[in-house]
């Protein structure tokens, strides 16, 4: 947290599971694909997103993305020092192995029509 900013940041209010759901949604995954990856119901993902919006005061994904980007800049979570891996806004490492991360970018996806 930056000096001079009183209180907790909105994303600090999220549980680990809420942050995990948010990170996947902000990566562009649909609720059904997030649900499959995390072993949840799509309705549960929707419930998590409602809670996230209530805790952060955000009304749409763009606001959530801006909060996540500001948080990443503030905490420096984007700099790993490892050229082979990146770190997302939630701190999870991504080594580029789509098979294990549920990453569907560049591939036809049944949820995206």
Structural features, described:
- There is one protein chain.
- The chain is mostly helical.
- The protein contains five helices and two strands.
- The chain has helices spanning 16-26, 31-38, 42-56, 61-75, 98-101, and strands spanning 86-87, 93-94.
- The chain has a two-stranded antiparallel sheet.
- A hairpin with a 5-residue loop joins strand 1 (86-87) and strand 2 (93-94).
- Helix 2 packs across helix 3.
- The longest helix has 15 residues, at 42-56.
- The protein is globular and about 30 Å long.
- It starts with 15 loop residues before the first helix and ends in a 12-residue tail after the last helix.
- The model is unreliable at 1-5 and 79-109 (pLDDT under 50).
Which percent range describes the beta-strand content? under 5%
Number of helices: 5
Question: Based on DSSP secondary structure assignment, what is the total number of beta strands?
Answer: 2
Order of helices and strands: HHHHEEH
Approximately how much helix is present in the residues? 40-55%
**What is the straight-line distance between the termini?**
40 Å
